[in-house]
Write the structure tokens for this entry.
Amino acid sequence: MMTAAAIRVLIADDHAILRAGLRMLIDSQQDMTVIAEAENGEQAIRMAGTAQPDVVILDITMPGGGGLQAIADIRKSNPSIRVLLLTMHEETAYLRTALAAGAAGYVLKKSVDANLLAAIRAVKKGRSYVDSELATGLLQHAIPDLAGPGRGPNDVLSERELQVLKLVAEGFSSREIAERIFVGVKTVETYRGRFAEKLGLKSRADLVRYALDAGLLSPEKFSIAKKHEKKSSKRTAK
């Protein structure tokens, strides 16, 4: 039986079966209830404003706007709402960006049973919660980027680092980027090293996936990037 002061939860995930499972888990608790569901970031932003939940559970990777893009928008319009990321991503990039954007918690999907309910209760009380599966050092490196609600994913990087990251994700080589932004190739490599270290990105595939999830690279530009990369590879081979 639900208590009068039950925690009101909005679930945003593009998989209906997962939403159903989460609803069943949450509604089985006496101190919390699911009041709404959304299947993408845009819906989550809109429904957060109308339903006014205490906690929004967001997936990171969703069609039509993912969780990383939605965090700052939800927090700007509804600063009292606590946002909890529920994701499969264990990379530093996602944790750092989520916390910088204003997320109060970060839980891995593989440990939902062990951590989700505790995370909901913790963030509702004003505390932060990071999945126990993540290393302590990962959290320590992410904390300096916290600076209150409403910050966007771009705030993790400097303007120049962000510019270079976008161009790399779009398929440009370091030399091509240097020519576009009027700096030396070594300077471009320095920026690449900085954002890779800050975000914990180990490969170009990781970088592109992060850029897509963070809204830095549209699916259309991603298609163009793949074509551009193929042409660059052919030129290199010659």
Observations:
- The radius of gyration is 19 Å.
